[in-house]
Amino acid sequence: MIKVGDRLPEATLMEFVHEETAGCSIGPNPVNVKEACAGKTIALFALPGAFTPTCSAQHVPGYVQHHAELQAAGVDEIWCVSVNDAFVMGAWANDQKSQGKVRMLGDGSAAFTQAVGLQLDLTSRGMGIRSNRYSMLVKDGVVMTLNVEGPGKFEVSDAQTMLAQAKG
């Protein structure tokens, strides 16, 4: 499992952005993790799945709500990573009204999730391999804080915890 002081792995996530004004969509586009983190502070949080109860009702809304405060604390971008495809993540971004605040990044094959060692096997529940629920503060590609939730918990990967860590 990745730990504080480690670099994020070489990986590519996928992003799909709806352009409502032009009636067209952008993507899906590859996001090279190393390049996208270069010189930036990223509040990255990951969760088991788009449109799932805790993720939709609490996790994403908290980061959307605290976007401005996180930026004021030095966070350049907020990333939500889930083992879903880019199209699902794009639709979820619309549902959550997160565009311009939280980048919704798909890890469709769980390559990034497995590279950081935070996969969660939900095969018995019909969901396959997913991401554990966690958050991390990343500076220039290096993990500064890591908050991994226990099974079925939502206590340490929330936006409030990340905000306190970004300020600290």
Write the H/E string, N to C: EEHEHHEHEHEEEEH
| Main β sheet profile | 7 strands, mixed
- The CATH H-level superfamily is Glutaredoxin
Class per helix and strand makeup: alpha+beta
Number-wise, the strands total 9
Query: What's the number of domains?
Result: 1
Low-confidence stretches: none
> DSSP strand (E) fraction?
25-35%
Explain this structure to me?
With 168 residues, the chain is of the alpha+beta class. It has one domain: Glutaredoxin (3-Layer(aba) Sandwich), CATH 3.40.30.10. Helix content is 29%, strand content 33%. It has six helices and nine strands, in the order E-E-H-E-H-H-E-H-E-H-E-E-E-E-H. The strands form two sheets. The chain has a seven-stranded mixed beta sheet. Strand 1 and strand 2 form a beta hairpin.
Give the topology:
Elements: E1 12-19, E2 24-32, H1 33-37, E3 41-47, H2 53-65, H3 67-72, E4 77-82, H4 86-96, E5 103-106, H5 111-115, E6 119-122, E7 128-131, E8 134-139, E9 142-148, H6 159-167
Parallel strand pairs: 3-4, 4-5
Antiparallel strand pairs: 1-2, 1-5, 3-8, 6-7, 8-9
Features:
168 residues, alpha+beta, Glutaredoxin, single chain, two-stranded antiparallel sheet, seven-stranded mixed beta sheet
What would a concise description of this structure say?
The chain is of the alpha+beta class and about 170 residues long.
